[in-house]
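$ run holo --ligand "MTE" --emit tokens
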Amino acid sequence: MALRWTNTLTRDDVTPEAVFLNRRQILAGLGAGAMTGLSAPAQAQAGLEPNDWDDITSYCNYYEFGTGKSDPSKNAHMLTTSPWTVTIDGLVERPGDYALEDILSQMTIEERIYRFRCVEAWSMVVPWNGFELADLLDLAGVKPGANYVAFETVYRPEEMPGTRFPVLDWPYVEGLRLDEARHPLTIMATGLYGRDLPNQNGAPLRLVVPWKYGFKSIKSVVRITLTEDEPPASWNRANPREYGFYSNVNPNVDHPRWSQATERKIGAGLFARRQPTLMFNGYEEDVAALYKGMDLAEFF
Ligand SMILES: Nc1nc2c(c(=O)[nH]1)N[C@H]1C(S)=C(S)[C@@H](COP(=O)(O)O)O[C@H]1N2
Ligand SMILES: [Mo]
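-- output --
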């Protein structure tokens, strides 16, 4: 589909100064080298050695391709990821169908090494490549009155064998509060280890929110809608008692069926010690202010 907007903005025009400074401060807190986007304490935490390519691309959750951890790596090649269009609509100044290549030409792709915590008490550390969601929101121009960002995954039954089963309501949907969406740790990932994102990991464009459980990080995004009210989220809708809208990693709030206090790092070996799970997945210093005054046992 054709691009329905044009603009001559540069990155400096579309990046509000506050977000830009915030990113600089975060980067300034880093140890030598990599642009990981982590605060110094988050980076210093143990176990931030990235998982290897094979673990990251063969142990996946992408139910549209089956519910087994290895199903996505076997089936996701069926998904056509080019050309790709993202519809951005709702409370935005420039709604429309944005061709992915046009989006990418305006974004700065960085590497971010994030811990990724999954609700079933396993974790990985993933070197993503991507851009900040805030920059994409600025491209579309968020209107006053928008409080939330809703996301939708592509739904193509003929390419997605797992959608024959009513495990979830398809298409997969997720949502963030606008301030969570604009946080500099929140990225849209387009790659892994400097290579194109494999389909099983959500090609060509997926959300990564490193302080929340994995299911928040919706894959293969085709629609982003700015809304006034809290949008639906697939796992919350399927089982609201077990999965809240916020889905922040919180070792103090157990899942009804398992403890959330520790995690097993994938690839660390069968006999490796479980690691204590950190509040907000280790990003507490960066994100705790977003939830000041909220009862996180109620808003889980
Ligand atoms: N569209 C879609 N997005 C999804 C999922 C899914 O089933 N469908 N699974 C979620 C869950 S439960 C997790 S843990 C992460 C896994 O991401 P990864 O396979 O890249 O590790 O993707 C999330 N995004
Ligand atoms: Mo998950």
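-- notes --
Residues 61, 118-119, 214-215 surround molybdenum atom (ligand 2) (CB under 6 Å).
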